[in-house]
Design goal:
Helix content is 75%, strand content 3%. The termini are far apart. A two-stranded antiparallel sheet has the order 1-2. β1 and β2 form a beta hairpin. By secondary structure, it is mainly α. It has two domains: 35 residues; 126 residues, no CATH class.
Length: 178
């Protein structure tokens, strides 16, 4: 029975991750020049997440929250009354939403170690903000602590690895129970 010639894209779609990995290793071992090309390509594709950088990003985003903006967007409005605490919660969540969404994407794609770094970075950033002197904290109440718990729960719901779950939970417990 004659075999149909498949395009490179169709072959990649049919091949499993392990088969693609073996092919890359074979190509990389065939010559130093090809090995360098494969390494350069992989470096561009694979990101290494740093929890401290993520924590810094979370903290920076939260530090930009402005009480003047909160007051301008809450209270009596043309459309009715907007509770200042509810608006503070909404602004708080919006400022860390990108990081939390990235963690969820990593979990969806089974990138559990990267998702763990993201989760730990998020809760470190939330903790730093919660311990800061930011004026916005007067209006957001327990939101940082409550949201830390939500982030940890979301992570643990999707990553079933007991070691990683314990590491995240240990950090969380150390932050809330110093």
């Amino acid at each position: 029975m004659p075999r149909r010639k498949l395009s490179p894209d169709a072959l990649m779609d049919l091949a499993g991750d392990d088969q693609i990995r073996r092919c890359l290793l074979h190509l990389a071992s065939s010559s130093p020049a090809i090995r360098m090309q494969v390494e350069d390509c992989l470096k561009k594709q694979v990101q290494i997440y740093d929890r401290e950088a993520i924590a810094g990003s979370v903290y920076a985003g939260l530090s930009c929250l402005d009480v003047e903006e909160l007051w301008a967007q809450s209270g009596g409005t043309r459309d009715g009354y907007v509770d200042v605490n509810e608006k503070a919660y909404e602004m708080f969540i919006e400022s860390v939403d990108d990081e939390v969404e990235q963690m969820k994407k990593l979990l969806e794609f089974s990138q559990y170690p990267d998702a763990q770094e993201y989760c730990m970075g998020i809760i470190l950033g939330l903790d730093r903000y919660n311990k800061s002197e930011a004026e916005f904290l007067d209006w957001s109440g327990d939101t940082p602590l409550e949201y830390m718990e939500e982030v940890v729960d979301e992570y643990k719901k999707l990553d079933k690895n007991p070691r990683r779950r314990k590491e995240v939970d240990d950090l969380y417990q150390a932050l809330i129970n110093p």
